[in-house]
Fold Flavonol synthase flavanone 3-hydroxylase-like.
Amino acid sequence: MQNHDVDGLQIKHNETWTAVQHVPGTFLVNVGDYLEILSNGRYKSVEHRAVVNAQKKRISVAVGNGPELKAVIAPASQMLDKKSDIQYRPIAYQDYIRLQQSSTIRGKSPLQAIKINNI
């Protein structure tokens, strides 16, 4: 959620940062890495960032949601079939969050770090 008259959200698409125009009265939902892992890569998380505006103050509210910190996250068995290999190794959610928040890893690197065989 953000103030209605100041844009600043961007997503990375084809290695280019693209502005996301705010639509008044809406919330933007980013499914995040957790759903990409759970879906075994069928649903992709989107790399995103917020940029500042030199003319106006930008206010945004972000709310994270996920499983219990000690829960192990991995692809759901329902998302696998005979042709599909598991793409992500199981990891405790708290360890994934720690990896994601590391000062040395940025962007999609945390997902790559738990990917099996770097498919």
Observations:
- The mean pLDDT is 84.
